[in-house]
């Protein structure tokens, strides 16, 4: 029987692969991350819970980054060192209870830690909204966002999809319901800085997703359901709303704006809208 | 001897059609699956190039592409938004269902299961033939959707209703998207046909593994590649019927006026939709109940393939065989309990999100065990850097990179930011798509000699590896940062948004890398096709491997084994056994004829079956 092809080139190939892993994956990966922090990174956080979310992201980044680098260095080292040479034999070594238990339990411990931290943040994000929250409704449609404020009575009037008319009554307000009389329907979202806001999310037609990158907020708008989330904007400014769930050919143009300003400015703006 | 006569006789009397086209031989069926899948991979790959053309240079004019895809481009050569979504949808559907599932499970499963357990064929050869022959019709129906009114579906490979559900029977076009017309129906029908094919296949695999193992081949002596195929078949059998039900329900919603997934009171295109009382989340639950096991259907077979390759080309037993089997089973079990992590932002109760976070991060533990076992297999190995081995090592790297980003996405508070951004695209292209592709390539380089009796060119294989490995990282690694910056997936163009302005350079880089990656695959195509006809003849066991398939001829004859079925005496990983004359001891070598593996027979899992030398030929008895 013919011998396996002579092993002379194996060490060379191994060293090439090891170098590629270290240079491209380890150095390249870490280097690109550093570069990305300057050019391609999360927007500066502008909501209260976003700070917790970012901390969780960074913690996960550090933990996974360490594992990423270590495992690749390990692979590179083994590939560098253990290329076939001559008629040398590999070690007949195929079980080690202690080693296997270690690399079962250590990842388990790390994951339990990350799960616990994640559960705490998730519970806070979806905990009950503070009593002084303002309330606003968001409705997605192909391809834009519509907002509704409940007005002085604080109650959203009934809507009836059959009444929807793009020009006169885009929300489909039912005039028979007295609560709908003072409802304000707008194309822009204005929020007060540092005031918690409950957002009721609905959809007129298909799935959309209400995504404000700077707030670390994303919630699908599901037809037939009203999903409520809450958050607190912490920085004045104008932020973009994007649609993050495929909703048709105009998915990529479904852009909205949210203005975060002082409570007075929001009141003034609301008063202007009612005319 | 009777069997050999019979086998030879049978081979002799079969005509060309029965031997190579409507064949019931598992090896031919496996090769048919593989060839068809490679063709579909080319189709899916071209679609990927179209996606990257658009995302690299949004709205640019492509004079040539206009002639190649007349319906998809405007007169001045820009790609139409609905065609873009059709391309995205079809790229995903084709790569997941029509390439990776069919190649890894249909191709390698069919070819390897009977050979590695010492059987002559599958338990149900006729059903096996049916399984393959449902696949080309499914392809025809799927690709036909490009040519009907409204074009191919626009709703993504996940086909979320109501976008995918609303249909105007009068005009034959979609209500909410052009592609939700007849194209979407064809997509659903195609998937239904393919699911039946998968079910025939998986029933066959499970029965074959349970019933047709040769003498001495206990479950604890099965190679890991066979364990992976067996577990994958169970996953498919349990999860695909759920998608089948969902697909039929969606077809009913579209054509028969039911409302499983469409709620009351929708207004689409200015019209009140008549459906009432359905729920879009129901589809998501049903879809992902399949969809998550499905990603393990794609990754378990490569895991098995890579375990084989690392042992054979590293000349070393796989490390932690029992832990490997246990983690395959653990991953398979847990894969049914994690579907909700696709739905953290869907409107599902947040409490349920917490439960799915726990199961999702739990599945990382067996995955970590497998990874460390592969790395430990390399320790003090004597590695032969064949193309198969290079792809196997590449697989481990890709799986680590993609697996780690899964830890971000498994945590719901973090996932809220990353869901439906390019971070997710990067994640699954590493951990599932590229890793599975590397398993596929590694497996092809490794088993090509057995499949076709010829060797592939090593130098071209290595060149293919270097370019593909660099190409994959250059294409998909930067996508993490597109996702960090918040770029949503499935956007025709990110230019509408101020916060995505700074990403155009990075997007161009990704596109150029993707084109390079695509071109590098031509090297593989050339090598593959050339080696089929011109490759040097392969001997029976060119890699000096232990498993049973390498003890048969290359390619194995009809019936695989000649007169006598092989008898198994040991586990498959006796490489570099101290004191043995060769550095490998095939499974068929009796214990008395060679040094017993260190402890391999003392473990109940690895050596449970009583060891008897073959006395009589069971089949002729």
From TrEMBL, chain A:
Q: Which residues form the Cytochrome oxidase subunit II copper A binding domain?
A: 131-272
Location of the protein in the cell: Cell membrane; Membrane
Q: Which InterPro entries match?
A: CcO_II (IPR045187), CcO_II-like_C (IPR002429), Copper_CuA (IPR001505), Cupredoxin (IPR008972), Cyt_c_oxidase_su2 (IPR014222), Cyt_c_oxidase_su2_TM_dom (IPR011759), Cyt_c_oxidase_su2_TM_sf (IPR036257)
Q: Which GO cellular component does the record give, naming just one?
A: plasma membrane
Which UniProt keywords are present, listed alphabetically?
Answer: Copper, Electron transport, Membrane, Metal-binding, Oxidoreductase, Respiratory chain, Translocase, Transmembrane, Transmembrane helix, Transport
Provide the transmembrane region boundaries: 16-36, 56-80, 101-123
Membrane topology category = Multi-pass membrane protein
Principal subcellular localization? membrane
| Alphabetical GO biological process terms | ATP synthesis coupled electron transport
- The EC category is translocase
One GO molecular function term of this record is: oxidoreductase activity
Q: Which PROSITE patterns match?
A: COX2 (PS00078), COX2_CUA (PS50857)
Known EC number: 7.1.1.9
Reaction equations catalysed: 4 Fe(II)-[cytochrome c] + O2 + 8 H(+)(in) = 4 Fe(III)-[cytochrome c] + 2 H2O + 4 H(+)(out)
Which cofactors does this gene product need?
A: Cu cation
Q: How is the cofactor bound?
A: Binds a copper A center.
Q: Which Pfam families match?
A: COX2, COX2_TM
> What's its job?
Subunits I and II form the functional core of the enzyme complex. Electrons originating in cytochrome c are transferred via heme a and Cu(A) to the binuclear center formed by heme a3 and Cu(B).
Q: Which family does it belong to?
A: Belongs to the cytochrome c oxidase subunit 2 family.
Concerning PANTHER family, the annotation shows:
CYTOCHROME C OXIDASE SUBUNIT 2, CYTOCHROME C OXIDASE, SUBUNIT II
Q: What is this protein called?
A: Cytochrome c oxidase subunit 2
Which organism does this record belong to? Candidatus Segetimicrobium genomatis
UniProtKB/TrEMBL annotation, chain B:
Q: What Gene Ontology terms describe where this protein resides (cellular component)?
A: membrane
Segments carrying the region annotation (Disordered) are 602-621
Q: Which UniProt keywords apply?
A: Electron transport, Heme, Iron, Membrane, Metal-binding, Respiratory chain, Transmembrane, Transmembrane helix, Transport
Q: Does the keyword Membrane apply?
A: yes
Q: Residue ranges of the Cytochrome oxidase subunit I profile domain? A: 16-569
State which residue ranges cross the membrane: 28-51, 83-112, 132-152, 185-206, 227-252, 295-312, 319-339, 351-376, 388-410, 422-445, 465-486, 506-529
Checking InterPro entries in the record gives: Cyt_c_oxase-like_su1_dom, Cyt_c_oxase-like_su1_sf, Cyt_C_Oxase_1, Cyt_c_Oxase_su1_BS
A single GO molecular-function term is:
cytochrome-c oxidase activity
Q: Does Ribosomal protein appear among the keywords?
A: no
Highest taxon of source: Bacteria
Q: What subcellular locations does the record give?
A: Membrane
By its UniProt entry, which Gene3D superfamilies does this protein fall under?
Answer: Cytochrome c oxidase-like, subunit I domain
Membrane topology reported for the UniProt record: Multi-pass membrane protein
- Chief subcellular location equals membrane
Q: GO BP, one example? A: respiratory electron transport chain
Q: Which family does it belong to?
A: Belongs to the heme-copper respiratory oxidase family.
Please give the function described in this protein's UniProt entry.
Answer: Cytochrome c oxidase is the component of the respiratory chain that catalyzes the reduction of oxygen to water. Subunits 1-3 form the functional core of the enzyme complex. CO I is the catalytic subunit of the enzyme. Electrons originating in cytochrome c are transferred via the copper A center of subunit 2 and heme A of subunit 1 to the bimetallic center formed by heme A3 and copper B.
The record's PANTHER family line, in alphabetical order, gives: CYTOCHROME C OXIDASE SUBUNIT 1
The name of this protein is Cytochrome c oxidase subunit I
